[in-house]
Write a structure and sequence with these properties.
The structure is a single chain. With 137 residues, this protein is an alpha+beta fold. The protein has one domain: 2-Layer Sandwich (Heat Shock Protein 90), CATH 3.30.565. 37% of the residues lie in helices and 27% in strands. The chain has five helices and five strands, in the order βααββαααββ. Strands 1-2-3-5-4 form a five-stranded antiparallel sheet, covered by helices on one side. Strand 2 and strand 3 form a beta hairpin. The longest helix has 22 residues. The protein is globular.
Length: 137
Amino acid sequence: MKLDFVIDGNNFDMAGEASSSVKRSLAKLGVSPPVVKRAAIAMYEAEINAFIHGGGGEAHVEIESDRVEMVIRDFGKGIADLSLAMQEGWSTASEQVRKMGFGAGMGLPNIKKNTDELDITTAPGEGTEVKMVIYIK
């Protein structure tokens, strides 16, 4: 099963809709709840990062019998220091975003904790691509 989504960087009400849809799809397919939870957390974090930091983007999900592959691409300025961004608590979120309850610096660390494979491609001025794989056991 393939699913594609647009992450609208201008519509806060839609933030998280792609990850919610994937969560529902996995549950309907009978994927175990722990795997559904891991996929939902990882995808939500990547989706919200694309919304907050990337000005929007796109999500592509492929669900196979043995794995879930999720790719989130954004159109932002890229991550200047990826190793720093992977540290818990580090964030470049604006004060406005923090007041809304986001920007605690747990997005990338949460993605890493909940995926079996994680590949992040980023460059200044070129946006970010987060590829996540979770194996269905």
